[in-house]
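Q: Given only this backbone (297 positions), what sequence would you predict?
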């Protein structure tokens, strides 16, 4: 087998069409069919079961598809690395906290040492970034949660903690002398929560679950997709929220919010820099990963 045969097969499976595959690869349909026939003969396995108008992929066919994708990606990574152009651009996917509170600290300092490296930054929730790095959309990602994705490397670089924030008024000031905000009072407060998929939401939900509190038991008044909106709504008196300590340091220092500790080890959370394990990292990407890990030590 060779790269052309594997590319033909992957493209046919990806687009579910011999015609489209031929157009994408700039070749003929008979050539695509020949490539797949050679693969089937060499592997002594049926890869595709053809019908009158379409085809089905066999279990062995799916197995080859996964392997072929990895082989072609390794080839492309090597070619890109060896033919690296002068411009050094890192495709970076980041979740909300790193985008708003970590990158503004890190990138200016990194730029002083590596002024020829540039970034294209894309923001989503943690799960969205993990999915995108898995697919190869970004070189690296910065996220607030860890999954069991065996394709990805997760390296911790920053430890945060979730805290309770409230408006500043007489009711909440009455709790300031207590070590922790009382749970029996917590479940009576109007709550603002993050959207599904965020690392903050996952950590807050784990805390509530360990405390025996179900989300449906809370008087939820709003669901938001970013920390700044939550901070502003809490400061305006709409309700309370469990949020990243890193995200509220500015509002607490400016006395726009009250911050309360909550009891429980599960409130600590790690931020991770992630990338594909089998991805051949360019040297300047490695430099950024090393710099970020050392920055917060």
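A: Predicted residues:
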């Amino acid at each position: 087998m060779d790269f052309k045969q594997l590319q033909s097969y992957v493209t046919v499976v990806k687009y579910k069409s011999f015609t489209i595959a031929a157009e994408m690869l700039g070749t003929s349909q008979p050539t695509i069919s020949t490539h797949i026939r050679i693969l089937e003969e060499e592997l002594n396995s049926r890869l595709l079961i053809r019908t009158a108008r379409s085809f089905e992929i066999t279990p062995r066919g799916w197995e080859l598809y996964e392997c072929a994708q990895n082989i072609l990606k390794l080839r492309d990574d090597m070619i890109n690395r060896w033919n690296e152009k002068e411009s050094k651009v890192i495709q970076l996917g980041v979740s909300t906290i790193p985008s708003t509170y970590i990158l503004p600290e890190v990138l200016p300092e990194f730029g002083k040492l590596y002024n020829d490296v540039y970034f294209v930054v894309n923001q989503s929730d943690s799960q969205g970034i993990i999915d995108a790095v898995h697919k190869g959309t970004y070189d690296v990602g910065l996220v607030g949660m860890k999954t069991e994705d065996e394709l990805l490397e997760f390296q911790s670089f920053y430890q945060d903690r979730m805290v309770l924030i409230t408006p500043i008024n007489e009711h909440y000031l009455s709790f300031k002398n207590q070590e922790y905000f009382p749970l029996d009072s917590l479940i009576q407060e109007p709550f603002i929560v993050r959207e599904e998929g965020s690392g903050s939401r996952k950590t807050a939900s784990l805390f509530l679950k360990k405390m025996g509190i179900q989300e449906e038991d809370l008087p939820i008044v709003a669901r938001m997709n970013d920390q700044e909106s939550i901070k502003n709504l809490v400061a305006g008196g709409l309700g309370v929220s469990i949020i990243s300590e890193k995200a509220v340091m500015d509002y607490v220092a400016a006395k726009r919010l009250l911050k309360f500790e909550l009891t429980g080890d599960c409130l600590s959370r790690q931020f991770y820099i992630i990338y594909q394990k089998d991805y051949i990292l360019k040297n300047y990407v490695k430099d950024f990963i090393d710099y970020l890990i050392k920055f917060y030590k």
